[in-house]
Amino acid sequence: MTDMRYLFEPKSIAVIGASHDTAKIGYRVIENIVLSGYPHKVYPINPRGGEILGLQVFKALEDINNPIDLACIVIPAKLVFDAVKNCADKGVKIALIITSGFSEVGNIQEEKRIATYARENGLRILGPNIFGIYSAGVSLNATFGARDVRPGNVAIVTQSGALGASMIGKTAVENIGISAMVSVGNKADIDESDLLEYLLTQDMTKIIFMYVEGVREGERLVKVLNGATKNKPVVVIKSGRSAKGAIAVASHTGSLAGTDEVFDAIMRQSGVLRAESLQDAFDWCKFLSNNPLPHGENTVIITNGGGVGVMTADACEKYGVRLYDDVPALGEIFSDIIPDFGSTKNPIDLTGQATTSEFDGALNAALKSDTIDAVIALMSEVAVFDAENLPGLIENHYQHFKSQGKPILFSCFGGDKVEDCIKSCSTKGFPVFGDVYEAVSCLGGMYSYYNYLVNRSDEIAVADIQVETIEETVRRVREDKRNFLLAHEARAIMKAARIQTPTSQVARSLDEAVRHSEAIGYPVVMKLVSKDIVHKSDAGGVALDLENRDEVIDAYQAIIQSCKAYDPNAKIEGVDISKMARPGIELIIGARRDKTFGPIVMFGLGGIYVEVMKDISFRAFPLSRNEAMNMVKEIRSYPLLLGVRGEKKKDATGIVDTIIKLGTIIQECEIGDI
Ligand code: COA
């Protein structure tokens, strides 16, 4: 495996297709490399030779005597394979293929040919169909995008090259400092996981932002993300959320999108912050990379306007920011500063007569308090408000809060002076916003990450199951050319996984049906056993709540008669007698192997809740018991499990056990595709 340092910290670069024509991409790339101040050797390659930007142009790669770490390929698609061959011969470590015209337009074979040749000859490939790489650590801008990149601590990995290229410009406008920016394009070889593995160890990168369209090796990505989020936040935008978007993604990069719900659940499970818009993603990156994580969840709103305070409280609920609600404690902290007609309940209302000096006092009190963990300060420009002092107030308090490891955000409303203040403060990197929702969204993102870190558990739950028994049962079903289990087979599997089921027996005659019913104890349930009738209820093959011998005899005869009428050719093996379960809540617990992410577990309330309301939760497997419990708590109907109207609380621990057992079956047993 080639070290990704050759990509992010190359000691020498060749540009294959360096053009003399200033309008061409091949010129732009070499120009960006030169102007970005890259301190190591740069070798332009072009059969015409000559000089570009004062650099000697080599006619071929083999003419260079020194080793090459990274080669940027910027020549038409049909010439790329030969260039890749030359790179491998020369011992180049990584080839970055900017050229498009491969799998994204159906030219899959050529892309495969290149990737296979490279892999077999020890060359790694980034791309094709990419805009290049920016790496602040070695002052390298090997892209054909904008030149004006601010070095900083946000790393961006994007699948869309054009979006990435335009993000270079956008980050400059948003005043976001970049540590690295890479596009992965068609991912013929190097993918997000390779890049993340490097970025999570790179000191300069404090936060990673990924734009994803499709995931190929999902299981590996989840592992890498789990490792990354332990140390730094990761923000993801995944397009193709809607059905139409998914089709667009498939045609854009030729990759499968995967189910969005599953992707969403797995990102949350891995502690990844999923943003819906670029604005949110940029805001979060800027805020999380520049500000300390809180030490607890007590947030206080300090305002000089009641209405805006309430709006902010709403936003806090929406984004999961917990407001500090210990009224006596808040009274003690703020009562000296707040006028009698103000409020020391959160939001802390300094009232419309407050000037920056009242804010000064309240913010100092919040800073000093050990029980306040984060502050949102709201300044409205009312008549007495001295807006000219606002920039100084913000800068002063921002620096103090930051140095003491306490997050603070500001939201200001008003005329020109206030607008100018927002602009100048943002330019300096202070979290000052015009819209409270934008501010609270940032704090919400930070708290999502904080809560993930606090609750994170690397302890993986295991279940003791009889793998061989389960595999043998499934093997016999396969031999019978079936892809469904009969009731007793399903029960055998559940028994082997130690999942509790009602006592049951298959009866092959009326006599047996009666004997089994008496042995099990009434009431019982009777169900047809036939490989030829899968939907038993449709055929009249199910009888519930049979209370005695006579009811069992009647039910047996009715089931056999009705099923024979339903399908005269059906082979009837008998009936399954089970103990009738007591009334309760119907749940569904599922597990499957996802094409992208491997073993997945699912939980929800059964019946209409799962089918109509889609009230279900997913997780990648394996997981911790904690995470399995989160899955149970996450569904909207969870309160029903707590017991409503005098009902007993349901056995959530039992649900967690079953989720883990089922996941273990899918993970451990060789049972083929379902
Ligand atoms: N080795 C080195 N240089 C070579 C070469 C070789 N084997 N064969 C040709 N060249 C030179 C050419 O002579 C030319 O230089 P010149 O202008 O000085 O004569 C230069 O390489 C470029 O070749 P050219 O044929 O002019 O190609 P182009 O510039 O029109 O297009 C690409 C090349 C790669 C830009 C184009 O094929 C492409 O893929 N464009 C899309 C890129 C893109 O959007 N990528 C995804 C971004 S998200």
What this model shows, in words?
The chain is of the alpha/beta class and 674 residues long. It folds into four domains: 5-256 and 264-288, Rossmann fold (3-Layer(aba) Sandwich); 291-451, Succinyl-CoA synthetase domains (Rossmann fold); 467-579, ATP-grasp fold, A domain (Dna Ligase, domain 1, 2-Layer Sandwich); 587-668, 2-Layer Sandwich (D-amino Acid Aminotransferase, Chain A, domain 1), CATH 3.30.470. Helices cover 41% and strands 18% of the residues. It contains 24 helices and 26 strands. The strands form six sheets. A seven-stranded mixed β-sheet has the order 9-8-11-10-12-13-14, with helices on both faces. A five-stranded parallel β-sheet has the order 2-1-5-6-7, sandwiched between helices. Helix 6 packs parallel to helix 7 (218-231), helix 19 (510-520) crosses helix 20 and helix 22 (625-634) crosses helix 24 (652-668). The model is unreliable at 249-258 (pLDDT under 50). Coenzyme A is lined by residues 16-17, 19-21, 24-26, 45-48, 74-76, 79, 83, 98-101, 129-131, 161-162.
